[in-house]
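Proteins fold reproducibly. Look at a sample protein:
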Amino acid sequence: MVTLYEHAGGDDALHRVEAVFYDKVLADPVLKTLFTQRNAHHVDHLTWFTAESFGGPGRFTENLGFDHIIRVHRGLQITDEQRERFVALYLEAFEEAGLLEDERFRAAVRSHADFGARVAQQNSHAETDEDLHPIRDVPLWTWE
């Protein structure tokens, strides 16, 4: 079966989606306090994470590791409104790229974004390591 990564169009397609998404979050009034300035490598890191999670190359794990994602979210105090807005903009970026026509793929992307945003939110409020979400590896997302 084709992976989500292959269905999306691989690195090039995911990089385009993540670039559109990143522009959206930087300009969004709800997310401005979380995305305060453009980071030159953020789109690449988002692409690596999504690609790996969708069954593509393991560059995120190889180059950054999951501890990186914990560190960048810790202390952000992500609100429910910010979490929901993040997911909405993520889906918008995929929609604008014409990648959500397949209902199963749409459901997988929504589930992926929602899960990731919930993990990030929990980790953003963690005062101790015990408060962190237990996931420590990039999750593999499938069609189910």
